[in-house]
Design a protein that fits this description.
By secondary structure, the chain is mainly α. The chain is 59% helix and 5% strand. The protein folds into two domains: 73 residues, Glutaredoxin (3-Layer(aba) Sandwich); 128 residues, Up-down Bundle (Glutathione S-transferase Yfyf (Class Pi), Chain A, domain 2), CATH 1.20.1050. The longest helix is centred in the middle third of the chain and has 35 residues.
Length: 217
C-alpha cells in the first residue's frame, strides 16, 4: 500500500497528493505534523520532515516532495506531469524549484500568521509582519512569475505539469489566508491561478481541505 505522511494543509504534502490523485494512484494519508516525536514517524522520517512516502517496492521511505513526485512520474508515467521536450522540462523543473523556495517563503508565512496560528492556538496574528510581507516581500516574487508564465492555460506547454501543482499549492495556502495577487497588477498570474483552481484535481483537493481549516476551532 502507498502511504503518504504529512498533514494535507502542508503545501508540499498537497503537491504530492495532487500528483497521486491526478495519476489516480491509490494511497493512504497519514496526517502527521512535521517534527512529530513518535518513534514510528521518526523511523520513517529521521529529520522529522514532511512529506514522506512509502510503498512496497522502496527499500526506505522517500523524503522531499520534488523527489517523491519524480519517483511517481517514473513509476507511473501516464498521465505525465513532466513535459517531454528538454527545454520545457527544464523550465518546468525551474518553476517547481522557484515555487518550493522563493514563492513558499512569501506564502507560507502569511498562512502561518493568519490561519495556522488560529488552528494551532499559537497566539495572535502578527499584523505588522503580514503587512510587511504583502507590501514588500510578495511583489517581487509575483512580478517574476508574471514574466515567466506563458499566455496559455498552463505554466509550461499545453498540459498540466508539476510546475502547475507546485505553484498552485503555495498560492492555495495564501488564498486560505485571504491573500491573492491583485489582478490589476498581475493580470496573467491572477488569471492563471483562477484557471488552475477550476481544474478538477485541484478543485477537489481544495474541497477536501475545508474541514481541516476548522478542525481545530
Amino acid at each position: 500500500m502507498n502511504s503518504l505522511y504529512g498533514i494535507p494543509l502542508s503545501p508540499f504534502v498537497r503537491k504530492v497528493m495532487l500528483t497521486l490523485e491526478y495519476k489516480r494512484i491509490d494511497f493512504t494519508s497519514q496526517p502527521l505534523f512535521p517534527r512529530d516525536p513518535s518513534p514510528e514517524f521518526r523511523a520513517i522520517s529521521p529529520l522529522g520532515k514532511i512529506p514522506a512516502f512509502a510503498d512496497a517496492t522502496l527499500a526506505q521511505p522517500l523524503l522531499e516532495s520534488a523527489v517523491i513526485c519524480d519517483y511517481l512520474e517514473c513509476r507511473y508515467p501516464q498521465p505525465s506531469i513532466y513535459p517531454a521536450l528538454p527545454e520545457q522540462r527544464a523550465q518546468c523543473l525551474w518553476l517547481q524549484s522557484y515555487a518550493d523556495t522563493s514563492l513558499m517563503s512569501v506564502t507560507a508565512s502569511v498562512f502561518f500568521e493568519i490561519v495556522a496560528r488560529r488552528l494551532l492556538r499559537k497566539g495572535d496574528t502578527d499584523t505588522a509582519r503580514v503587512a510587511q510581507i504583502v507590501a514588500a516581500e510578495q511583489p517581487p516574487v509575483f512580478d517574476y512569475l508574471e514574466t515567466q508564465l506563458a499566455p496559455a492555460e498552463f505554466a509550461v506547454g499545453t498540459e498540466v505539469s508539476i510546475a502547475d501543482f507546485a505553484i498552485a499549492t503555495q498560492f492555495i495556502n495564501a488564498k486560505y489566508a485571504g491573500i491573492e495577487p491583485n489582478p490589476q497588477r498581475w493580470p496573467r498570474l491572477s488569471s492563471y491561478l483562477q484557471r488552475l483552481y477550476q481544474l478538477p484535481v485541484i478543485n477537489a483537493r481544495m474541497g477536501a481541505d475545508q474541514p481541516l481549516l476548522i478542525a481545530y476551532d
